[in-house]
Sequence to fold (315 residues):
Amino acid sequence: MLLQIKNLKVDYGNIEVVRGVDLYINKGECVGIIGESGCGKTTVGLSITKLIPERKGNISSGEILLEDRDILKLDPEELRKIRGKKISYVFQEPFSSLNPVFTIYEQIKEVLEDKKDTNSQIVELFKSVGLEKIIGKKNIYPHELSGGMQQRAMIAMAIASNPSLVVLDEPTTALDVTIQHQILDLIAELKNRMNLSILFISHDLRIVFSIADKIGIMYAGKIVEYGPKEKISSNPAHPYTIGLIDSIPSFEHRKKLFNAIGGRAPLFSDLPKGCKFYPRCRFRIDKCLEKEPELELVSDNHVSRCIRIAYIVSV
Ligand SMILES: Nc1ncnc2c1ncn2[C@@H]1O[C@H](COP(=O)(O)OP(=O)(O)OP(=O)(O)O)[C@@H](O)[C@H]1O
Ligand code: SF4
Ligand SMILES: [Mg+2]
Fold:
C-alpha cells in the first residue's frame, strides 16, 4: 500500500470539518474523492503533506502513512523533502499556482531532482505533457500561456520529481470543456505510462468516473461510500451517491426513479444528530436519528455509511 490515511480529523478554529476519514491508495491507482463544495475534500488533500496549518487549521488526530512512514510525525526538514517531490499537487487555478515572475523553464528546472542536463529533461517533460510548442522557448512566462497550457505546465512540474503520489484537486474545473477533456486524457495517459498514483478531487461525478479506479464519496466531513468505480456506478449503496448519480443527465442507472438531492449540506457548526444526510434523505426512518452510521460492507471492497443498505440495494 502506497498511502494510508487513517481516521483523519481536521478542524478550523475548533470546528471539525474532516471528521474521521480513512482512505487507501495503491501504487498506480487513481482514487477519486467526490462531494459537494465545502465537504472537506481539499482539506483531506492538503493534510497529506500537513499543509493544513498554512490554512490556519489543525490536524487533531489520525495517521497518514506513506509507505509505512507517518507523515504527520515528520519534522519540518523531512516534510520539505516530501512536499512537491514525493507528493506533488495540481490545483484548480494554474495561474495562481505558477509564480508570475519566473519563466516556465525556471520553475520546472527548480523542481527537477537531478540537476544534470536539465534542458533535455525539460524537453522530455514538455513532450510528455503536450507542450511541444514551447520547447526551446526559455523566456516564456506563465501569463503568455493559455489556461490549458498553464495547467499542462503545472502537471509537468508535478511529475518532474518522479513523485510517489500526485494530488489533483479540481485540476480541470477552471478550464473550458474541450480543454478539460484534453487535460483528463493527459492525466489518464500519464497515469498509465508512469504508473502514477493519484488522488483526484472533484465535485463532478462524471469526471471522477472517467478517471478513477476507486471512488470515495464524501459528505459533511466523512466518507459515506467507498468502492471500485464499477460498483459505485452500477450499484450505489448510499442515498447521497444515488442522488449524485441521478443528477447527471443521461447517466444510465437502474435507480433513475429518484430525483436529484434537494436541500443543502448542513453547516459543520450545526450538524444534525444521527446520520448527517438525514434531512435530505429519501430513505430516512426514525432509527437514522439515533446515531451516526458506521461504514458497513455492501460487497467486497465496497462500503456504505447507511443503516438501510439492504433495502437500498434491493430497490
Ligand atoms: N482556512 C479556513 N478557515 C475556516 N474554515 C475553513 C478554512 N478552509 C476551509 N474551511 C471550511 O472547511 C470546510 C471544508 O473546506 P474544503 O476546502 O476542504 O472543502 P472542499 O470540499 O474542498 O470544497 P470545494 O469543493 O468548495 O473546494 C468548508 O466548510 C470550509 O468553509
Ligand atoms: S442512515 Fe438513514 S438517513 Fe442516513 S443515508 Fe441511510 S437511510 Fe438515509
Ligand atoms: Mg476544494
